[in-house]
Design a protein that fits this description.
- The chain is an alpha+beta fold.
- It folds into two domains: about 25-215 and about 325-430, 3-Layer(bba) Sandwich (FAD/NAD(P)-binding domain); about 220-325, D-Amino Acid Oxidase, Chain A, domain 2 (2-Layer Sandwich), CATH 3.30.9.
- It contains 13 helices and 19 strands.
- It has helices at about 35-45, 70-80, 80-85, 120-125, 140-150, 210-215, 280-285, 285-295, 350-375, 385-395, 400-430, 435-450, 450-465; strands at about 25-30, 50-55, 65-70, 90, 95-100, 105-110, 135, 160, 165-170, 180-185, 190-200, 220-230, 245-250, 255-260, 265-275, 310-325, 330, 335, 340-345.
- The longest helix has about 35 residues, at about 400-430.
- The chain is elongated and about 70 Å long.
- The structure holds flavin-adenine dinucleotide (FAD).
């Protein structure tokens, strides 16, 4: 017997994917956005068995980036994730606005295609429609991707996600130069050995898979961070503090605030924190943090005051920033994606975007190879020993093909990720520019952005950071 063409969701009494009775095609360490997107990209297209483990108890509970740029909403639509994202509350955002505390509105620009009234779900699901700009709280994005990977109706493969389960060590074959062939993982039930044709480290910036493979991720710190907190949404009719659904930047001499709509009644705030304010935002009293935020922005001037905008401090955190890029993406037949490979300044919203793009590219490169390998070997059963499977794979040259696919993945993604890290770095330098000169440059450049020449420059930036389409495509930007 060989792998069935379509595996579908695992039956309740089936042995766990990755057990000796049911070896996994892929073991993914980390069920964050990158790991969940990879599991989904694999099982949506290929009849593969994918096991995902994560040391947390479930999708996270803090906001770690909530913008799904058109570059990835098109990808997520193609793997069937948009229905779950939309029913979890993902909202399309159509414009970006830049305000200055003293000079008022400097710039307004469309972010993506307008959604016809009353057609939210159906219109966005249309494969031919332009990919939207969506916002949704990070934990909900993780949850929607994990749900679709495990239960998507059109999946060809089967995925199983186990929380409260952490990587103990990678398993290596004794011959074949110690190739990675699975992992030992630990949970409340004790240790479990998971056999897999491919192990993927999607385990974030302090990746244990990366460490155990002996791969490096040299990083450099930034001199600023972001304080992440949510607050109530101001009314749409509050004069100078009126708010309409938009990604919004509030500029001030003390540092900017990124304002992101969260559902119908909340805003997510990303407050730039310079070294001089770090102690306050790391360990100061909440009331003083809110007062410091309120001083920066007329929109948020009543934050935390009686009768003013309520703050929701659950999950609020100061996010320390670094940038770095691993020189190599794979070793010994195991591979990395997402923050395990690269960390970047979030000003341009690229961390989650790059993780999803890595996942899509890896699935494209490795999916057909693993499917061939799975078809070429006997369907694993209790009587199929691990060494018998390895012999089979060696005979069919699967290792060689897998390695070639991993090289192709690295060749495709490395230069693209390097470019995004560079773009994000320069944008963040500009955004974090302080003092009177910084303030003057922000005002002048965002005002310039509203001129016809400025719109052309914006098009280049937009096409590189948000849509990844060549700049010659028709513009979605328009003058103020
Ligand atoms: C505290 C924090 C705040 C952030 N805030 C923002 C933000 O505001 N804006 C923004 O754009 N980006 C932010 N980011 C970055 C953004 O979250 C990532 O770029 C993006 O989510 C990349 O996803 P990933 O799946 O590669 O990694 P992650 O989201 O880090 O997921 C890694 C997963 O691996 C799991 N894991 C780790 N080690 C093990 C192990 N040994 N065994 C099993 N599981 C393991 C973790 O529990 C986690 O679920 C933040 C990151 C962090 C850490």
């Amino acid at each position: 017997m060989t792998h069935a063409a379509v595996l579908g969701p695992a039956a309740k009494d089936a042995p766990p994917i990755g057990s000796a009775a049911c070896p996994a095609d892929v073991l993914i360490v980390g069920a964050g956005v990158g790991g969940a997107a990879l599991a989904l990209a694999l099982v949506s297209r290929f009849a593969l068995r994918v096991r995902v483990i994560d040391r947390r108890s479930g999708p996270g509970n803090i906001n770690r980036g909530d913008s799904l740029l058109p570059a990835v909403t098109g990808v997520l639509r193609s793997v069937g994730a948009l229905p779950a994202l939309l029913s979890a509350g993902a909202r399309p955002v159509h414009k970006m606005q830049v305000f200055h505390a003293r000079h008022g509105k400097l710039l307004e620009a469309p972010l993506g295609p307008a959604t016809p009234a009353g057609a939210l779900g159906t219109h966005l699901l249309d494969e031919d429609a332009a990919a939207p700009y969506l916002v949704l709280a990070h934990p909900e994005i993780e949850r929607a991707l994990v749900e679709t990977a495990q239960h998507g109706r059109h999946n060809r493969g089967a995925a199983q996600v186990t929380y409260l389960c952490r990587l103990s060590r990678l398993l290596r074959t004794s011959e074949d130069r110690g190739r990675v062939c699975g992992a030992v993982v630990a949970s409340e039930q004790g240790e479990e050995v998971i056999h897999a044709r491919l192990v993927v480290g999607a385990d974030g910036a302090s990746s244990s898979v990366r460490t155990q493979l002996g791969l490096s991720l040299p990083t450099q710190p930034y001199d600023h961070g972001y304080y992440i907190i949510e607050c109530a949404r101001p009314s749409a009719t509050a004069g100078s503090a009126a708010y309409e659904d938009a990604m919004r930047i509030e500029l001030s001499r003390e540092g900017g605030i990124l304002v992101v709509p969260q559902g119908r009644d909340r805003l997510g705030l990303g407050v730039l924190v310079r070294a001089c304010d770090e102690a306050l935002f790391r360990a100061g009293p909440l009331s003083q943090k809110l007062a410091a935020i309120a001083r920066r922005s007329p929109l948020l001037s009543s934050l935390g005051q009686p009768g003013g905008l309520a703050a929701f401090p659950k999950g609020a955190h100061l996010y320390a920033l670094h940038r770095g890029h691993a020189p190599h993406y794979h070793r010994d037949g195991a591979v990395l994606i997402g923050d395990a490979l690269h960390v970047t300044n979030p000003t341009a919203g690229q961390g989650m975007t790059m993780a999803i793009e890595d996942a899509a590219a890896l699935a494209r490169c490795i999916g057909p190879v693993l499917t061939r390998a799975a078809r070429g070997s006997a369907i694993p059963s209790a009587s199929t020993s691990e060494s018998a499977m390895r012999d089979e794979e060696r005979r069919t040259g699967a290792h060689h093909d897998i390695d070639r696919a991993l090289c192709e993945y690295e060749r495709e993604r490395w230069p693209k990720n390097a470019a995004q890290i560079r773009w994000s770095h320069w944008l963040s330098r500009f955004y974090a520019w302080d003092g009177a000169i910084g303030e003057g440059m922000h005002t002048a450049i965002f005002r310039f952005g509203a001129t016809p020449l400025g719109q052309r420059v914006q098009r280049v930036i937009w096409s590189s950071l948000a849509t990844r389409t060549p700049v010659a495509t028709p513009s979605v930007w328009s003058p103020l």
